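Possible regression after last week's pipeline update?

I re-ran a chain I had predicted before the update to compare outputs. Posting the input and the new output here so someone can diff against the archived version. Not blocking, just want to make sure nothing changed silently.
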Amino acid sequence: SQKQWYQRRVRVSLRRLIPLSCNTAHTHRLLTGLVLTGKYESPESLTIELSECGKQFNEQVSSKLLDLAAISKISKTRTFYGLHEDYPFVALSIVPQVEGNESLQDYDVSSRHCVAEAVRSAVGNGVIALKSDDSVDRIEVDSAGNAKAASEAAQLALYTFDMLKNKKKIPPQLSQCQLIGLPPTCVADWEAGIANAVSQNLARHLMETPGNHMTPRLFVETIQQKVNEQYSDKIAVVVRDREWITEQKMGSFLSVAQGSDEPPYLLELHYKNSDSAPVCLVGKGVTFDTGGISIKPSKGMDAMRADMGGAACVASATIGAAALNLPINLITLIPLCENMPSGRATKPGDVVTAMNGKTIQVDNTDAEGRLILADALTYADTFEPSHIIDMATLTGAMAVALGGECVGTYSTSENLWNVLEKGGYISGDRLWRMPLFKEYGDLLKSRTADLNNISGGPYGGSVTAAKFLQNFVKCKSWAHLDIAGVMDSTDSFSYLPKGMSGRPTRSIIETLKLLSLEK
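New output (post-update):
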């Protein structure tokens, strides 16, 4: 194609222009790609208004960038080659036209396409365009007036899961565009965005890893290694084994784990950077979910490697809080197990006893997430937290209800809900509040036990699951996030390529920031 011919021509020219290092014949000067942003003056216009970095670059190349861009309208991103010796690859990304601002006092949560999200979209498109070219060794990114949003999108767009491939591609180095002077606040915002995105990429890695490479034990070891490498002075890791779980009488949790040869664990992460009452995060950690005796269809079952998405997100958010040194007291609880069919597995109709003494009739072993969360939530209450936030890929009903655009959220606290909503707005990863009406709880009645783990009807599955969990929470400020619908990436997030999404890790980090400001 004309593009491939031109790329080859540019590379030949670059090899002539850029000498090899005298140290070794295999060392070469890094080839740098540049992501610049601009926006059309109006939807009908062909005139692009460049960012400050874009204007500076355009001056250096004698307006060639705008001259080439004006030939035809750019829908999202166009890559130009050979315009500048220092930047042989330039991706010009169009920032979508939006109305909005960054004020938390005046925001429209109905649209995530605020100014920051428009920047994320543009930068993500540009980075993906450049990383597809193997010649690019380094990418500099135009912050487009929002360094934090730009660095988040760039870091998220660079992520590739190739851990199990023999041939691995080294991702390009990433930095902020230096064409204009950067104030200290811009540098700090860039680093904060990188920390947020690195945390979400950790969650993506945990979720994407196949079940035989991410068993409960391997999940624990992965988090232990991550903490030991970077945050051993900030995060205390406590690993509870089957014996401890049994001593705590967590019969609901054990009923799920008993079908697997892999032993269960309850992983605790303690990050204490404040003397205030702790905030508790709880995440569902079913590292592979077959459905148990109520077995799932085989088609698409491989995606159930990510049924520990809640665990991945809360662990990653905790590490993100430590990376940002947030002034908060945080306790994260992660029940980990597999849900497998075997001669030891729980059978439909079995009755188990949870840590708080409630008996549960298990009519569907594929409704297992609520069973392990029940005991983890009861345990969370023993820390006398100010807030409890749990999250789980809990119900297909939530995916049907809201799709992948936002996270269905249930809360018993107006204040906590407001903070979560703002956190989602800041991150561009929205949350949407769902009802906790008493009548939904009535659907969980059992003739044999205190509760049934599924409702008696086919509708309202996500709400009844939330009502089930509410039976195991005493804390007055509780929120449950059903993240089943956002487990994998959707086309509307340009900076999240296909795969497991790691959502809503950044929303939780932003929520923790806001909660740390509470007096």
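Follow-up from reviewer: compared with the archived run. The chain is about 35% helix and 20% strand. Marking as no regression found.
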